[in-house]
Every structure is written in structure tokens, then in C-alpha cells.
Amino acid sequence: MSYIIIIRAFRPGDETGCNKLIRDCVMSSLNATFCGMIFKEITFQSIILVSAIMFIFFEMPLTVCLLVVPVVIALIYAGTYVTFIAKLTEIDKEVVNIPRLYMSNAFSCFWVAEAFEPYLMTQQPKEIHYIVMREEQYNRANLNFCLQAKKIIGTIGLCKSDRSDRSAWIKRLWVHEQYRRKGIASYLLNDAIQFATNTGYSCANIVASEYTEEGRDLCLRKGFELKQLYHKYILGSYIMILMYELTYQIKPTEDDYSPKLDFGKAFLTQF
Q1: Domains and CATH numbers, the chain
Q2: Is the pLDDT of residue 200 over 80?
Q3: Membrane spanning segments where (predicted)?
Q4: What is the pTM for the complete model shown?
Q5: Sheet containing strand 239-249, strands side by side
């Protein structure tokens, strides 16, 4: 039996599937982010500082001071969880407005990866080989999978950047964890880059956190380059996530066309 995944543009009615997928993907990275937070230097510094204050200034027993460890860890988890819930709230609003934000003009678009599977699956998706194709290829092949269940297992969006009319943002690149390492993210990213190229953008940018190493590696293999690093604050300035902004250069920028000024010659011509 053939298992296929179709890459296609978003259609009305996809909101529920996109919302469920993105929520699952966001929450699946909660534990990895939390573990990364625990082993940051600021966590150990906080534990040592609070324990020392309790022991020296309040003369509490050492066993009581050690209770700081689970308290700090619990606070970090709570802060991380609240941040993820806030992110989900933001995403929920965006998913509801996908038709307006991504599909209402010629400069943005949203794509989904849709799996066609039997209603009764005897294997896990990660154990199955899928044929990934675009909707145009599926239509030309005249395949009939109308009796199979359909499930959205990947998304990606592209919209105009608010920094410059010539640059675009690639957003919401998600693939369900059971369907990863099958080339789905590569297909989605290719379509977004091709759309940006055809639309006339000079570059396309994407942001990834320090805990999404697979996504960063994929972008780098596709020709993205590191543009800048910055920190996203979780609990004030105490707990932060390192963010990577990557850029894919499609056309030379205006700066590349500007003539290079030889400052030595410019200085001499003044005399």
C-alpha cells in the first residue's frame, strides 16, 4: 500500500488541522527547552546565591538550604511553561487569520503538508516510507485516495517583512515529530523559497531558537546564512533563549549596487 504526503497551498477548512499540529509541535519542544534552561550557568548561580544567603544570613540548616534546588527548578519550569502558553495564544490568533494574513495578497502564502493514510494504521508513521509530492504532481498522476484519512502534518508560511518591502519572513515551519526525517520540511522550505524568488523578494529570513538544531541545520544546508544572534527573554533578564536569525539571499541588495568609495583618493582630490 502506498502512503503519500501532498504539499499544497492552504485552503479554508485547514484551520483546525493547522492549529492542532502547531500546538503539538510547540508543546513537544517544551521539555527540551526546559532541560536546556536547567543547565544554563544562571541557574547554578541562582541556586548557589540563594542557598548562601539562607545559610549565612538566616543561619538555616544546610538540608533546608538544599531545598532551593527543587524550588528554582520548579520556577524555571513554570516560567518556561507560561511562555509556551503565551506563544500558543499568539499562534492561535494567527492560525484563525491565515486567510487574511497569508492568502489575501500576492506577496504572501501559506502551505500545508497533508498525509493520506488508512483509517486503521498498524504502524507508527515514523516507521513508514511516504512518497512526498506536490499537489500538481498528485493531480497529474490521477491517483485516487478518497477513501483514506487525511491529516495535516506540516506547515510553513511566508509574508512580507515589516522592515523592508524587498524582504520576506518565513514563519511557522512545523512538521509533526512522527513524520520528521522524511524530507517534508525540505519540500516546504523549497516551496517558500521558490515563492519568494518568483515574487521578487531580495531575501527571505527565518528565526530559530538554540533548541531547534535540526531546523537550523536544514536551513543552512539550503543556503541560509547567519544574519544575527539575539536573546529572547523568558523571565526578565535572568532566563533567556538564544535566537538565530538566518537569511537566504535571493538578489543582491541595493548596497551591493552602490559604488565603493576609495577614501584615500577622495581625500587627495580635496587638495
Answers
A1: 4-257 (3.40.630.30)
A2: yes
A3: 47-78
A4: 0.79
A5: 131-134, 4-9, 109-117, 149-160, 167-175, 203-209, 239-249, 225-235
